[in-house]
Amino acid sequence: MTNNTIRTRRPRTRPMLAALLMTMVMPAVQAADARQPILLNEEEQGFVLNEMRQYVVSLQQILTALADDDVITVGQAARTMGMQAMSNAPPTLMGKLPMAFRQLGMPTHKAFDEIADAAESGETTPQILSRLGTVLNNCVACHASYRLVPAAQGQ
Ligand code: HEC
Question: Who's near 136: CB < 8 A, 6+ residues apart?
């Protein structure tokens, strides 16, 4: 009796599962084009993208140094992407960035300062890796939400 119930249900479950998977996958595909555009001039965009590439440089140095137990280099590499990385930002940039973007951007720089502090105060590698895993959530969240678009000349 129990077996019969399962047999009659199976053919219905599979199409339902397929339909469920479709609804899960399709919004994700559409979301790729739904990132909010931020209009920046060439200098502003150049600054932001350079900063982004510097994040990758810093992460590469931090991870290599962690593997070598080289806490001095971990601290130095993290510090370069702390709040000081914003000091040369074009003065016009901040006003063009949406509030929610800044609320992800600032804590990301702060987190790199905190990683530098943590390395200097002797936190263990697993603790620092945990901090890195947490801060990388900001990278993922912001990239899922925003894209940069060149503004017309003079904007
Ligand atoms: C507050 C938002 C924000 C945060 C936080 C952020 N990014 Fe980005 N990043 C962007 C945007 C916007 C772009 C441009 C995407 C586009 O236009 O398609 C970008 C682009 C990049 C690029 C491409 C650079 C290029 O030259 O094209 C890299 C690499 C990158 N980010 C790495 C990172 C890493 C690593 C982190 C975290 C440590 C990070 N980003 C955190 C917003 C952010």
Answer: none
